[in-house]
Write a structure and sequence with these properties.
This protein is α+β, with helices and mostly antiparallel strands. It has 2 domains: about 70 residues, OB fold (Dihydrolipoamide Acetyltransferase, E2P); about 35 residues. Helices cover about 30% and strands about 35% of the residues. The longest helix is centred in the last third of the chain and has 32 residues. The two termini are about 40 Å apart. Belongs to the universal ribosomal protein uS17 family. Keywords: Ribonucleoprotein, Ribosomal protein, RNA-binding, rRNA-binding.
């Protein structure tokens, strides 16, 4: 199962190797059709205490590190690897779609 990746702002660095990240999401209310902002805080593992309050970070799901930590802050290497995998997947999907289009055109 793919790991979820969220983006947010560091709001606290009070604990060792842990940051609190506030993630904001926007959605339309189903009845009122008004755009609503909701935020949620996640506790994420920060191995080297590299991030400070106010930093914009990406976090991803991981195996539980403690009672409250289920996320880890993505390092630049992790982000680069993630972007490379996304590009490969997009290329694969594009090739599949083109092959499917070529197959339907040949059938006509």
């Amino acid at each position: 199962m793919p790991k979820r990746i969220l983006q947010g702002t560091v709001t606290s660095t009070a604990n060792a190797q842990t940051v609190t990240v506030s993630v904001e999401r926007r959605f339309k209310h189903p009845v009122l059709q008004k755009t609503i902002k909701k935020s949620k805080k996640y506790r994420a593992h920060d191995e080297g205490d590299a991030f400070n309050v106010g930093d914009f970070v990406m976090i991803r799901e991981c195996a539980p590190k403690s009672k409250t930590k289920r996320w880890e802050v993505m390092t630049p290497e992790m982000i680069e690897d993630h972007e490379k995998k996304r590009a490969e997947n997009a290329q694969y999907e594009r090739e599949r779609w083109e092959a499917k289009q070529a197959g339907t055109e040949a059938a006509h």
